[in-house]
Amino acid sequence: MSAFDDRGRAHEAKFARDQEVEFRITARRNRLLGEWAAERMGLTPEETDAYAKAVVQADFEEAGDEDVIRKLAGDLTAANVEIGDAEIRAILNEKTAEARRHFIDSQN
Question: pTM of this prediction?
Answer without folding.
Answer: 0.85
